[in-house]
Amino acid sequence: MNKEKVIVAEGLTKRFGDFVAVDHISFEVSKSEIFGFLGANGAGKTTAMRMLCGLSIPTSGKALVAGYDVFKDTDNIKNSIGYMSQKFSLYEDLTIRENIRFYGGIYGLTKKQIQDKTSYLVDHLHLQNHQNSLVKSLPLGWKQKLAFSVAIVHDPAIVFLDEPTGGVDPVTRREFWELIYDASERGITIFVTTHYMDEAEYCNRVSIMVDGRIEALDTPKALKINYDSASMDEVFLKLARKAVRGE
Amino acid sequence: MAAVIVENISKKYQVEKTKVTALNGISFEVAKGELFGIVGPDGAGKTSLFRILTTLLLADAGAARVEGYDVVKDYKEIRKTVGYMPGKFSLYQDLSVEENLDFFATIFNTSISENYDLIKDIYQQIEPFKKRRAGKLSGGMKQKLALCCALIHKPSVLFLDEPTTGVDAVSRKEFWEMLQRLKLQGISILVSTPYMDEASLCDRVALMENGKILAIDKPSIINSKFSKPLWAVQSNNMFALLKSLKNWEAVSSCYSFGEFYHVVMKSEEKGSREIEEFLMKNQFQEIVIKQIDANIEDSFMALMHTSNE
Asked: Whose CA is closest to B35, among B218, B169, B194?
């Protein structure tokens, strides 16, 4: 179907002194794909993600994100992506409306676009009665759904999600994934890390990093066959146990 | 006598102009030597409960006893008796691994060598780094050091507040294996977690949400009380399948679980035959439908649903 590549990485490497945090990783992610980026703590996921977001210049290798070079075009990359993590998401002391306006403004949306987006999001997330509440007064699950919606308020080519559902209740966690599927249907590429192995099953393809390298990359179905496992949890345990280096 | 007795504990916080209820009349007991899990998402009230039981926070109402001591009146005794590992890493970042452990041992009037047996198993994994500052340790190693520091005075009750949050699947598994070994030493353990799958590793669990307990029992018994038939459903184009099932008026609930959706029908009369007919009529292919037993996450969501009604 759609073969347009949104991320192309070739031999991407990052060293800190003698330590090779990310060791020649190569992979491609297609437009509107949901790509799971898994690995044990310390496998190199965060470093790899920081390079792809234009926040850290690689030591060697090549990578294009939304068509831009991670060495030279980091400003363009930042304009083309969204980012959300469990730790930093929204401004707690601003209201829901203010957060949307703030992020819309940062990403250069017009006043009209911001107005349209605000009413769409408030409606879509059923926040009509809370739009003027401070974000800190909201339950975590609502915050995370709002944070995701705000991270894609500018319709980026790709959105990076760093453990977006940690600590979220099981119902909201599933609603969150419905938002992810929705965004993917609208053509946004999803790059997501998670510690919940059932969520790995919801990805189109999954890569598993071990000691700085991509040890496996395939659809969840193929990974389970190749590693003779009943679940992604089992695949992950089999691969991550091979890790030599500590965290 | 039970290791922990909680009777009708309530706690509210003032946030801006509104009162937020953290704990709403919670009661339960933990038997001696039991591994008891408090399972629930962020905001359920787990940390408030732990802080009340470790005498760091006063409840608005209710009473609680730990090893027979009252959490208000006998707070000094409780502090000597329990070990507490808070959710947030709270060791001294500027002290080395060894210095932290030595510090906590000294505070409790003991020494590392005196209780080395208890922590040996865990401490040996971080001993190669004993000269390293705690602040420079990885997440997994910090977690092990914190557990050692909570154990060094040989507590009879151990409180672990979300010890596995943000920890990868391999380290989580190892951590639970450590807890099983500690249990064998006769220590009563209260552990909280947002990961539903960890419930099955506890002797008994309290499922918590919004300051209330949804259920307390052995995980297998909680699951056996899931009253309706549960169907695992799979087909090609899973997202379209989800939308179809959710819009079908015969469906009571439909949640994703790995590569399947778990479906409960409104009427128990309707089963795999009706689901299959519906999916075929809607052009789905590669259909798989099987009846399954509920797991703790199915139970949790069903209970959440009932309690919100």
From this structure: B218
